[in-house]
Automatic annotation (TrEMBL):
Gene3D superfamilies: 3.40.1350.10
Signal peptide: none
Protein family membership: Belongs to the UPF0102 family.
Protein name, per record: UPF0102 protein SFRA_006580
Origin organism lineage: Bacteria, Bacillati, Actinomycetota, Actinomycetes, Kitasatosporales
Amino acid sequence: MNARGALGRYGEDLAARRLADAGMTVLERNWRCREGEIDIVARDGDALVICEVKTRRAGGREHPMAGVPVRKAARLRRLAARWLLERWPTPQPPPGGVRIDLVGVLLPGRGAPVVEHARGVA
């Protein structure tokens, strides 16, 4: 694994821990299909959560919570629908619906990482 992959994996580990600390159940990580990848699939009560994780080092060009661009949001919605078709145990959608969240992880030069969680970004 290269440095970028290791950075992303570290950020996803922190994000999964943050979601679990918030009472969510992580169902799957790094789910892939031909159309792309979902970083984290979790359950928050009756809702299914598709979570995009952005990890950045401090001083970079873009803050990890800069948002999910329109194209990325559309792709995440398509991936969520695909995940439901392939992995959801019943033909009925989750009673609480599907939500797309963003977890941003900022790694400062010194000190603890800053982890932010935004619900329903797309």
